Structures
1.
Amino acid sequence: MERDNNMLKKRHFASPVHKYIALAAMIILVAITLYPVVMIALNAFKSPQDYASHGPMSFPTSFYTQGLIDFWNRVTFEKKLLNSALISSSVAIFGVILSLLNAFALGIGKIKGKAFLLVIFLLGNFLPQEALVYPLYYFAKALHLYDTKLVVIIVFTVIQSAFGTYLLTSVFSEFPKELIEAAIIDGASKSQILSRIVMPLSMPTLSVLFVFYFIWTWNEFFLPLILLISSSNQTVPIAIATLQGQFNMDVTTSAASALLGVLPCLIFFLLFQRTLTRGITAGSIK
């Protein structure tokens, strides 16, 4: 009995220590993650003279915004911002819909060769984008979609939905069959089962997929660089890269371009942070 009491006391005194260690590790991890963003933000508001005099680690001596203005005007950033927002939001919406329909057929419907189809979707996530360049290039040329935002939306909707299909299929395979059977007995059609039962109960997972699809598509660079050659169709990451190749920008203007590139995506993530947390928590509880 005394031994058990001693063990409980040790656990009681050790537990705050573990909490502090975990908290310290988390603070260090957050600091490492935020360090590049902080450096970009500091240097984006420095003048070239201030950067040359005090280096990248110092705080700006004055609030310098000419670098942001120069970059915005050089690339017509508002146009690139609208292109990225249109492509990313379209892929997020259509990718979630396509993933939901595929997973409903594979996870709840009775389809032959289900395991084989899941392997195909899984392989779609492992294929490097470099292996897709030539097929997608000729696909876009054949359909007269090359250098249009539509071809990028189609390509990334299919690519992103491969992951979503695999994820949702594993979720739907554990879906309560009693609900489906009760709906069938009540005379519900497949579309009614999907829209009134499956989709409402899966909204947390679908919300997580929507956030991921948007952020992943926003940060895409390689395939949009190949498929979008006109300046009027290019996205934010391409504008940043091509501008650095066309002009000799100073370090502070480069930092300003990086800040403008990451800021919309960061704002989107913060706006949907609660949705993302709720979706992950709902999945863990289930």
Note: The chain is about 80% helix and 0% strand.
2.
Amino acid sequence: MENFLKIDMDTYKPLREIVFTTMREAIINGDFKSGQRLMEVQLAEQMGVSRTPVREAIRKLELEGLVVMVPRKGAYVAGLSSEDVREVLEIRAVLEGLAAQLAAEKASEADIIQLKDIVNKFQQAAADQDIARLINYDSDFHDVMYRSSKNKKLVQLISALKEQVQRFRVAYFTKIKNTHILIEEHNELLNAIIDHNAQLARQVAEKHISTTEKLITSIDEKK
């Protein structure tokens, strides 16, 4: 059985919700690959459930755009088109730039200490070529920066894109080699926040998202 499909039967949530959440996280975290076929019987056996909650989960995932149904062939994990990447990252660049600007103005000493710690851990993970840690620390760095903006509504807006961004993050960290670019930009952003340079923080954050888009695009071009 695939470990990522192991479900927690001790929770009070309905079984259909547990199955849906498990499959959704598997797609977002890259355990299910883009274009992979999702077979009801096999998935039901792996999770130890009947086909009904699996079928319901696939339908809900299709509505969210994470699964596509191909006539007479079945369900497949939706791919990440260059248009998807562009549209999401255009929005994220604006929101992230504002979050960085506000973080430079409002970050507390505790926020800065936490950001420094994550940057150091990210660099060590890069040195160790530990992809799982790179993904986690990159996510942590941005999450702490968002919270440092002290703007709850902004954090909510960014969170709405979090799952799509996580799919991009998994895609490029599993394939790119030049993590030094991301390390440099994390450090630039951290220093701008430490110096309370709001304008520079915004510029660096927007450049960072542009870099991400270029890295993902370069992956697509190499396929």
Note: Residues 82-106 form the longest helix (25 residues).
